[in-house]
């Protein structure tokens, strides 16, 4: 591959595009505006807690083919861990019921016929909700496809909110159906939970940067692109803090930035470009404990638990950190951080203390709350229609990001897929 490929954005979409192109011949440069790569999937040292934490929690599945291919390319496939069975512990804070969803490994859903492996209180007829979601049209919402019952209340609704980061009343049923087709519909072997053994950066970012350095690619952090020049239907230059960069005839440009940044940078050169413009936040709260909690039973095997009937949605047990994720968090935007954290801490105690070797303290331990105010685009049917394809009206300009038309919600899997798709399009000498 001749020419110079310029990738703007060092998140997972940009890194996956770079990894895909590294070693293909020609020059490769990644421009990241921030001090470090990784975007919304990275780790950092928190001074208040005195330890390294992830800026968010991400529960991956063994069905995430693009994720595992990416990790294989950068030599990090063994950095993800998880239980050896497709198990998902849950607790309902309403009646304190506890159960472990224990999926069948094969395609046949034998788990549905075992009261000890399925959602308590569900009726088999409720499984029709899954079929309705997988067959949903582009304008249907999740709520329109769900049948009333415990399967929806205790599994499908929490699953939808975490997968879409959007409430069921407005969330796209078609997008959730795509997730179900790629996971639950493929059986338990596709649903093994996976998460980083150490941290997001240690799994997804640092090995990628090491790989790119080995491949002689250039990664420039703290380098914000402020504009793009065009001529004759092509991108011809980038405006950088230390001077403009010219794109020659064989050079290509991949924009792997967020949707708002793409709209800002490309609005003048691509007047017909439409991007998602409504967003949902995610709140993560990290509690540091001394001594570290010791989890037992299903919680000890899975190292996470789903929470129904509260603000908290998932609690992860990671060494001396109990980390909580709250999706679709726009609804809590006006809540005071300390007050919200106190409510969440009480939910954490109720959710995980019965499965710990020692009780948790009554008083809230040191905590860090991370609010990602524009964590993902709002996964509604209207916003789905605004997601652009990888190719643009400019011959050498391509788009990447979890907000592009990946067919999935804004997930790590979608971000990595988008980077691969953009890289392959940039490598393709044939246009349209």
From TrEMBL:
Pfam families assigned to the protein according to its UniProt record, in alphabetical order: Amino_oxidase
Gene3D superfamilies named in the record: 3.90.660.10, FAD/NAD(P)-binding domain (3.50.50.60)
GO molecular function: oxidoreductase activity
Amine oxidase domain location: 12-425
Protein name: NAD(P)-binding protein
